Amino acid sequence: MKIGVLALQGDFEKHSLLLEQLGITPVRIRYPHDLDTVEGLVFPGGESTTLMHLIEQNAFRTPLSEFAASHPVLGTCAGLILMATSVDDSRINPLGLLDIDARRNAYGRQVFSFTDQIQLTHFPDQRVSATFIRAPKITRIGTGIEILATWKNEPVGVMSGNHMALSFHPELDGYSGFHKYLFLS
Ligand code: GLN
């Protein structure tokens, strides 16, 4: 199985390693036609304003929306921001793949980045560490959105259909459970 990792900017390498560990072949997506070769897509973390700019500049918006309509998509951190319906930053016109709103950098600046245990809704006994780096907060949960993970009772991992978004970076802690659930189950 081949899964694309949007490689315009951000931490696409670590996602690729995680996919390889699951026996999936990661494919760097740099141009819209690269999407033709893959069965799913990861939007990595990075800088959402830069990513948005590059998406518009490379005529990626429509191909990404069309691809997402029939394929699984995972977004982490800046990726969550891109997948949201509304974001508190006018420079970002998100793709609206999930009926959620997001607030950028809502857990504080870079110096307030942290790693802590999150709670998994379906596996309450599992201990999973998650790293938050200038992470977005999910400020609204729309209808049909399932909460997969919480931190201090706030949603930090959500899903609807075959679209999943996480505020944190599972790839930095080497946790492949979310990738596995979305792409392999
Ligand atoms: N703060 C970044 C943004 O809003 C996201 C940070 C990240 O992806 N680690 O784009």
Please tell me about this protein's structure:
- By secondary structure, the chain is of the alpha/beta class.
- It has a single domain, classed as Rossmann fold.
- It has helices at residues 12-21, 48-57, 61-68, 78-83, 177-184; strands spanning 2-6, 25-29, 41-43, 73-76, 86-87, 100-103, 114-120, 128-132, 137-141, 146-151, 154-160, 163-166.
- The strands form 2 sheets. A 9-stranded mixed sheet has the order 2-1-3-4-12-11-10-7-8. Strands 5-6-9 form a 3-stranded mixed sheet.
- The longest helix has 10 residues, at 12-21.
- It is globular and about 40 Å long.
- The model has no long low-confidence stretch (mean pLDDT 96).
- Glutamine (GLN) is lined by residues 45-48, 77-78, 81, 104-105, 133-134, 136.
Bound molecules: glutamine
For the secondary structure, the number of strands is 12
Please state the structural category: alpha/beta
Indicate the radius of gyration in whole angstroms: 15 Å
The CATH superfamily is known as Class I glutamine amidotransferase (GATase) domain
Q: How would you spell out the order of helices and strands?
A: EHEEHHEHEEEEEEEEH
**Top-tier CATH class:** Alpha Beta
| Unreliable parts | none
Oligomer description: single chain
What brief labels describe this structure?
23% helix; nine-stranded mixed beta sheet; 185 residues; three-stranded mixed beta sheet; binds glutamine; 12 strands; alpha/beta; 5 helices; Rossmann fold
